[in-house]
Amino acid sequence: MESCSQMTDDVLDKYLHSDCQNGFTKQHVKEMIVSYLNLTFAFTLTVLELIYEYSSYILLAVALYFLLLILYRSYVNPIIFKKEFTEIGFEHIPPGPDRDRIISRAQTAKKIGSKTPPPFPNGWFAVAESRELKNGGVLSIDALGQNLCIYRGEDGVARVVDAYCPHLGANLGIAGTVSGSCIECPFHKWRFGENGACVSVPGVEHAPKGVSIKHWTTVERDGAVWIWYDAEGRDPLWVVPELPELKSWGYRGRNEYVVSAHIQEIPENGADVAHLNAVHTMSLLSGLGEKYPLLNDLIGCHVWSATWTRNEDHTATMTLTHDYKIMKFDLGHVDVKVTQIGPGHVRLFLSTPVGPILVSQSVTPLGPNLQKVIHRMFSPTYNAPFAALSVKAEGAMFERDIVIWNSKRFVSAPAYVKTDKTIRAFRNWFAQFYSENSIPFREALQNPLDW
Ligand code: FES
Ligand SMILES: [Fe+2]
């Protein structure tokens, strides 16, 4: 106590240069400090006593809060987890006012590789989230080298048309309005019906014949609006079947990313069996295993095995087994059956110890080397909390691939080894989605929609 008092004296001597400053003597100041310290001590003691006395209630309240939060995000307000393009794979660029410019320059300088396949393969591509397109709603999206207007008629049907009005070129997706099943241009109020034909013009008795806007074949599946893109102008070469499970399973949220890579690179990841144990082994629970490999046994790690098989049509099948292992103990066995449907759609059925989850992935080319990738989660009601959790967990696994994609280039003739035979098979299979009039990569780069 004496030494404490001595310390207080020393401090006061240092900062109070005379015995009298602003009317206070050193003794006054000392008494004031001591009384404040006493008060603080008494207050802290009382709070700690209260916490101790009511600890079980407090623990219960915290547990209840988290339980309610999980239930709310699982059943009422599903998680939408989005990351900015600059957040993944650019950690080596320090924060600062020039960061975006440096990333943009790195992207411009990135080599695209030789013999890069056409950037927009033929197939179905997701252009909007079904639940975000309300009746009478209008959206605008630039994808597949197109400017598109997406709208939902008052009849509840989602439709997609080219963005530009054939009259004077106003963009229907920006300020267009919906009337019945038609989209109305904001500039002179021309209306276009469901097949894109102009159906009325204000002040004109008959709509002009032969005037129409291109409309896109559209379907809604897995919580998204898809359009059929085909360089030859053909009708859809396949239909995407509805999933009977989704009649009773609920939507549990989604993660969304923008990736700088050729579209083919994303599904190729499924056939690239060798990368699984290189990229996806480290535990999601802690990054410590990455820094200190000796800790891997204690923290645990993900163990994978996979097969990839092409089918004789527009689909390919992958089977994947996942185990989370700590030492020799297997804490999380998950079987995944993956169906790749065309170039831009994948369905992953996860059989987990707590129930099934469907992950529906869409890949949509926003530009020749820029993809929007979304994973939507669905599950039965009883498994909703786990499916909601997987929005972030699956996203964290996927981000490890994005780190690679965002700075890699396409290699048309890789140095294949034995373990890469499925990559070669994948490329042969994927080639079916390019056709005679597929726009070449370098030509597509002339488009102002490029990265
Ligand atoms: S520009 Fe669309 S109606 Fe005139
Ligand atoms: Fe991967």
TrEMBL record:
Every Rieske domain range: 124-227
Enzyme class: oxidoreductase
Known catalytic reactions: cholesterol + NADH + O2 + H(+) = 7-dehydrocholesterol + NAD(+) + 2 H2O; cholesterol + NADPH + O2 + H(+) = 7-dehydrocholesterol + NADP(+) + 2 H2O
InterPro entries: Cholesterol_7-desaturase, KshA-like_C, Rieske_2Fe-2S, Rieske_2Fe-2S_sf
GO CC terms in record: cytoplasm; membrane
Keyword Oxidoreductase in annotation: yes
Pathway in which this enzyme or protein is active: Hormone biosynthesis; Steroid hormone biosynthesis; dafachronic acid biosynthesis
EC numbers for this chain: 1.14.19.21
Matching PROSITE patterns: RIESKE
An MF annotation (GO) of this entry: 2 iron, 2 sulfur cluster binding
Main location class: membrane
UniProt keyword annotations, A-Z: 2Fe-2S, Iron, Iron-sulfur, Membrane, Metal-binding, Oxidoreductase, Transmembrane, Transmembrane helix
GO BP annotations listed: cholesterol metabolic process
Record's subcellular location: Membrane
Keyword Transmembrane helix: yes
Transmembrane segments: 33-51, 57-75
Cofactor field: Fe cation
Similarity-based family: Belongs to the cholesterol 7-desaturase family.
PANTHER family associated with the record: CHOLESTEROL 7-DESATURASE NVD, IRON-SULFUR DOMAIN CONTAINING PROTEIN
Protein name: cholesterol 7-desaturase
